[in-house]
């Protein structure tokens, strides 16, 4: 069962309104013994309780596009509306669906609606079929596995074979990366690709406008590399034809880009040379709520009040003696942990300057890919030579901020285009796997 609703507001205020209640065509794919979310992840949390008696039936934490947008400059002076959804097993009785938002003192309720599964207005119609469901990897009953859905956007009828090859390539890249590699047997992977009239997705900064089936687009929040979709209704209707808990959208494009939102979806421009890195990095956001650890690249978000982040891989270090990953820190490792921060920042600022020049001069994407290749080579050498390389500590510079936030290791796929997750990120990913798979 799915509750579609509208989330409206700005940087200070929010409103919610019901759109529709939908009964999706496939059985619930989740594990009935793991219906309650106690991970404390997400800026939002929803709970489903029996209307009579209040028994908790289901809960999940998640993030939203609105939650990211409200931290942008635009949200300081404008309102916007986003479509969002809450999915849960069809109840046998009427239930209260409560939406909660994280605050300084935990989660507080911001909206509630009643769902009666037998109500005549529950939409049981079937949306248009997106085409044949691909079984990219089946390891068992969906109820006992993590179910990942790979969607294609911007693929024409003639490019169906390309999508299948792209999806298989993404899957192999993901499961070549630890700890997904070690947990491959815990995942089912499905594929769907609705037909696009034109090849590719929109890129407004270069004057390219298209209507792709899932609505993915570059230039989200006026950040040229950020690919998201705000067409939630379209996305959910397509996805309803597969058993899924997580979604990866392959955007049929070559220009570097991607995005990832916890428990919503991740995206990647699949034809870019760096699609392997971007796809795994963004899936880390979506799957395990991993925060960005980098801080020298341009982002649309305005800095907020310094406080301890809830994300598992960044810390404000307000209490160094109680670092959230202190059990992984070897005795004798100083907290904060020293590293050649000034040298790194000087190099990265030069890279960002070159990056902007390449885009301004409309150089071919191969030039950008080569810049990133040289950057990763230099970063890996520089960071790999640090005294505490490969050890868990608290390295300043994370969460888009040069000062005041710390990451667990000097290098990680969430910090640079490095090829591996750090120990803290790996543990966070494994915790989520256990939330879904037996």
Q: What descriptors fit this protein?
A:
single chain, 438 residues, alpha+beta, Immunoglobulin-like, four-stranded antiparallel beta sheet, 15 strands, globular
β-strand amount: 15-25%
- Indicate the structural class: alpha+beta
Low-confidence stretches: none
The CATH homology group name of the largest domain: Collagenase (Catalytic Domain)
CATH architecture title of the largest domain: 3-Layer(aba) Sandwich
Which CATH class of the largest domain? Answer: Alpha Beta
- Overall number of strands: 15
User: What integer is the average pLDDT?
Assistant: 96
The Cα radius of gyration reads: 21 Å
The end-to-end span amounts to 23 Å
Short description:
The chain has 438 residues and is an alpha+beta fold. The protein is built from seven helices and 15 strands. The chain is globular and about 65 Å long.
């Amino acid at each position: 069962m799915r509750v579609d609703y509208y989330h409206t507001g700005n940087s200070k205020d929010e409103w919610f309104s019901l759109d529709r209640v939908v009964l999706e065509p496939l059985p619930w794919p989740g594990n009935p013994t793991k219906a309650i979310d106690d991970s404390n992840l997400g800026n939002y949390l929803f709970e489903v309780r029996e209307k009579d008696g209040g028994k908790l039936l289901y809960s999940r934490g998640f993030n939203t596009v609105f939650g990211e947008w409200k931290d942008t400059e635009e949200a300081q002076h404008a309102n916007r509306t986003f479509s969002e959804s809450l999915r849960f097993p069809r109840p046998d009785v009427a239930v209260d669906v409560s939406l909660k938002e994280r605050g300084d003192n935990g989660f507080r309720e911001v909206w509630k609606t009643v769902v009666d599964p037998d109500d005549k207005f529950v939409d049981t119609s079937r949306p248009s079929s997106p085409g044949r469901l691909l079984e990219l990897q089946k390891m068992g009953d969906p109820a006992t596995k993590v179910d990942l859905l790979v969607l294609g956007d911007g693929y024409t009828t003639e490019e169906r074979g390309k999508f299948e090859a792209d999806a298989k390539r993404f899957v192999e890249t993901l499961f070549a990366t630890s700890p997904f590699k070690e947990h491959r047997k815990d995942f089912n992977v499905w594929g769907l690709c609705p037909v696009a009239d034109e090849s590719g997705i929109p890129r407004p900064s270069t004057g390219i406008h298209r209507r792709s089936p899932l609505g993915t687009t570059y230039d989200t929040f006026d950040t040229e590399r950020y690919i998201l979709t705000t067409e939630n209704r379209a996305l959910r209707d397509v996805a309803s034809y597969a058993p899924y808990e997580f979604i990866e959208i392959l955007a049929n494009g070559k220009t570097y880009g991607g995005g990832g939102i916890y428990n919503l979806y991740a995206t990647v421009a699949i034809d870019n040379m760096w699609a392997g890195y971007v796809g795994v990095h963004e899936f880390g956001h979506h799957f395990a709520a991993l925060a960005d650890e980098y801080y020298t690249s341009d982002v649309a978000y305005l800095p907020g009040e310094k406080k301890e982040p809830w994300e598992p891989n960044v810390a404000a270090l307000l209490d160094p003696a109680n670092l959230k990953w202190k059990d992984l820190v070897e005795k004798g490792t100083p907290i904060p942990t020293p590293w050649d921060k000034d040298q790194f920042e000087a190099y990265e600022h030069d890279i960002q300057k070159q990056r902007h020049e390449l885009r301004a001069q409309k150089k071919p994407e191969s030039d950008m890919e080569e810049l990133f290749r040289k950057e990763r080579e230099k970063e890996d050498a520089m960071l790999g030579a640090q005294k505490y390389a490969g050890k868990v500590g608290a390295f300043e510079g994370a969460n888009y901020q040069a000062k005041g936030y710390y990451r667990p290791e000097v290098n990680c796929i969430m910090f640079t285009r490095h090829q591996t997750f750090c120990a803290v990120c790996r543990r966070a990913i494994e915790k989520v796997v256990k939330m879904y798979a037996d």
